[in-house]
Amino acid sequence: ATHTRFYRDTLKGQDPAQLPLQALPVMDKRRLMADLPGHVSDPAITLAGLRAFCADPARIGQPFLDRYWVWESSGSTGQPGVFVQDAAAMAVYDALEASRRHSPRPWARLMDPFFLTERFALVGAIAGHFASIVSAQRLRGGNPWLSGHSQNFSILQPVAALVAQLNQFRPSILATYPSAAVLLAEQARRGALRLPLQEVWTGGETLTPAARQAIEQGLGCPLRNSYGASEFLPIAWECSQGQLHVNADWVILEPVDAQHRPVPPGTLSHTTLLTNLANHLQPLIRFDIGDRIVLGARPCACGCALPVVQVEGRTDDVLTLPGASGPPVMLLPLALSTVLEDEAGVFDFQLQALSPRRWRLTLGRDEDPSPARRE
Q1: What percent of the chain has pLDDT over 90?
Q2: Burial class (CB in 10 A: 0-12, 13-18, 19+), 152
Q3: What angle, rounded to 10 degrees, do the helices at 178-189 and 209-219 form?
Q4: Residues 6+ apart with CB under 8 A from 353
Q5: Pairing between strand 319-321 and 251-256?
Q6: pLDDT tens per residue, range 214-240
Q7: Left (φ > 0), alpha (ψ -120 to 50) or beta: where does 316 sit?
Q8: Between the CA of residue 106 and those of 111, 132, 201, 223, 367, what are the distances in Å?
Q9: Which residues contact 259 (CB under 8 A, 6 or more apart)?
Q10: What is d(CA 346, CA 369) in angstroms, rounded to the nearest whole number?
Q11: What pTM value is reported for the model?
């Protein structure tokens, strides 16, 4: 951190080795983006350069400055962020995903530890520089054999088109958001979606017990959930007991109240501060990620010593709207918010249903309501 201007100034005259973590200031997206060059250790990185890079969808999954990996966060907290990782941080993320993700099919992994016989489908927002699609494209670029075994599918397209594409590809492993998995499970129950799925991987939203049951029953295979963020990709993985375990040797989570004071285990936090121990290029220390969590007070029955976490994050329900003609249209709120954020540049908004065919979009105080922006 002392290689960045912000922390060099913050820690001036102090010995970092003697400071407790709680002595360092709380950081958030707004403050980070207000002075991004001050928070990176390579002066070649500029906000203008990052913005230009992320504006080009053709560069998704390609290295920035030939050596760094970049992704944007959504604006779900009212402020989008840009996060830069070096090769060492990416190696940590890869190792955690490979070594700690609990497979529901241990015998299959014993016979095929490198997933050579699997077909992967990622269903998500794939038109922007988001962490999931950047990571997927990066892996495909480094492993050419994956090109025929993995494919990405956009959640922004009509459900019928998505179902048709998945039926044609026939994946054995599906990775997506819980709300999208619920939608696809309903399509499978109706007989429209016919896949030889062996596993479903979910993340990015809160997975409720009801949603898990609907997904596993509808898609006919076990589900494994995970917890991650743009600030640190593999925060927690799900064990055989259905509990999320924090990768606490590489990421520190502080559940805190509204004044950023620690709350005890077993207590729901107001927000969470995250410290990324892998990213030395853009140090994220006590970074407010906005999630409400509960750290477990007891060890897990699976025997893993890593702490258990329950996450009360974003929960989205599928919207069912009347079609212009024929059956109703199913719409993922995440798809709708992605269009508003990526296409209109609007991050602070409220969308209200006034009637089945009438909606009101209210912009935040700082959003630009000009006709050009609306177009």
Answers
A1: 66
A2: buried
A3: 40
A4: 359
A5: unpaired
A6: 999 999 999 999 999 999 999 999 999
A7: beta
A8: 9, 24, 15, 14, 50
A9: none
A10: 9
A11: 0.83
